[in-house]
Design goal:
Rossmann fold; six-stranded parallel β-sheet; about 15% strand
Amino acid sequence: MNILYLCHRIPFPPNKGDKIRSFNQIRLLARNHNVHLACMIDDPEDRQYVAELEKYCASVDVAFRGSASQKLHALGSLPGKRPLSVAIFHCSELQKKVDQRLESASIDAVFVFSSAMAEYVMHRDDLPRLMDFVDVDSEKFRAYASHQRFPMSWIYRIEADRLRRYEQHVSETFQASLLVSESEARLFKERTGTPGDVLPNGVDLEYYSPIRPGTRSDPPALVFTAVMDYLPNVDAMKFFCREIFPHIQAEMPETKMFIVGRNPTKEVEALATDQVVVTGSVPDVRPYLEQAWVAVAPFKIARGVQNKVLEAMAVGLPVVGTSLAFQGIPAREQDGVRCADKPERFAQEVLELLKDRALLDREGQSARAYVENKHGWDEHGAQLERLLDEFSRRPEPALTPVS
């Protein structure tokens, strides 16, 4: 099958949530199909990765749009009804390349990653189209609105409303809608009235191998790995360092906290102390995971599956997080995770693990076992193949106008 795969960011290197999922989907689809990739680039340095993707793809078409241009396109769409996300990621250069590829490559089906990319093939109802929404993005913007001041709260609320209508239109006109978890699929049906198929994320179980004996630091260390200019991650670390970590330090003052990830904002850098280390970009997060005792996921804003949680579990780290951290991961305490939303309770869950090495080891082993059983990429690929076979035979949905 010749598949056109559209995604909003170049899916390499696979070092953040959306790129991890999209890259592995391309890698898995390329085993049995000819994959033609079309995507946006927002950093000129990312052009070097086109050659890496050509190892998997029959063709790679890209278009560049910098962050300043993205903001201008978003602002330009405010007076209308178009979602800002669509305006940011739609450009005439890539549209032309997509149209040319559709004609030259005898495309059999279109796989769209992220609702913002649906615009490129909205007019092609002659082809089977599959949409991987991953998360319900409209709800993400609704959450952003509640955590921001005017005017950003107003802009995010507008985007949430527009994007919800757009998501509904896409779900009604495409043959299949994919979501990352059962909870996202339930929410998606509530918001759009359309059911979605669940396709969980995977983890590279060889890359994130179990912690070797003797690698844990002394004194104890906690870890959080993420891109540190992303609002939910910034908010999570502010919450942890200001409201949770002081309770831990009160009982175990020698404990260190490592915030590991590129592009830390000034707010994140301001959290650094003798006991809180903000690393910035690192070539490999695994040494920080291996020296840690516990991974924390103190989210107050989140959607879908947190890859950072799965990766920590894969190396054998127990994870303490808020309920939002596990909304897309149906793991329980017997699987090496602990849930707490109140700062004091969160701290006590961490302290209980830090004070009992035998308990720490048992829960770490349980975390690894859970990921092995539930989140392998090979199963993701097999399920994707089944869905492709099924949706290519589904009837064409009735067309409905965007309101």
